Amino acid sequence: NQKVYLSPVMDLYSDKIIAYSISSHPSVSFTLTALKHALDIVKNNQIKTIVHSDQGVQYQSHEWVNTIKAYNVVQSMSRKGTCLDNAQMESFFHIMKSEMMNVHYDTKESLIHAMKAWIKDYNENRIKEKLG
Questions:
Q1: Phi-psi category of 52—alpha, beta or left, where left has phi over 0 and alpha has psi -120 to 50?
Q2: Of residues 58, 60, 71, 67, the one with CA closest to residue 28
Q3: CA-based angle 98:6:12, to the nearest 5?
Q4: What global pTM score does this model have?
Q5: What Rg value do the Cα atoms of the chain yield, rounded?
Q6: Cα 111 to Cα 102: distance, rounded to the nearest angstrom
Q7: Cβ 15 vs Cβ 88: under 8 Å
Q8: How far apart are CA 2 and CA 108, in angstroms?
Q9: What is the pLDDT of residues 21-53, one digit of tens each?
């Protein structure tokens, strides 16, 4: 009867989850942990970085917006009620839920361990046709 929240950051070119955080509460600081880690990874790219999210309250907070500005990246948000704007991330969550939620996890820690293992497998072992 406990909830676990996942805040992944996906590279839309490779579909790789380049950073994520897991928490018991969907706070702004929880989402910023993954965002800052991802932006530290890509900050030396010569390509303009765009961070896309849904319209969750965390992604509209002053702290989130100021972090986006501090890293000199562009913020993009899905239109309200338009899941297709964020289709790749929605697809990721669908696959993860369909593959992980048919198992009973005795503890929150066992679920978190399984989530981390699943993301590692998703990043390292899944064939991505678009990458050849």
A1: beta
A2: 58
A3: 80
A4: 0.87
A5: 15
A6: 12
A7: yes
A8: 7
A9: 999 998 999 999 999 999 998 877 667 888 888
Q: Which long-range contacts link 56-63 to residues 24+ away (Cβ below 8 Å)?
A: 56/26, 58/26, 58/27, 58/28, 58/30, 58/31, 59/31, 61/28, 63/28, 63/29, 63/32
Q: H or E segment at 10? A: strand 5-10
In angstroms, rounded to a whole number, what is the distance separating the alpha carbons of residues 75 and 51? 5
Tokens of residue 36, six digits: 């800052």
In the chain, % of residues over pLDDT 90: 51
Task: Assess contact for 55 and 83: CB atoms under 8 A.
Answer: no
Count the Cβ atoms, other than its own, within 10 Å of residue 94: 10
Gap between the terminal Cα atoms of the chain:
42
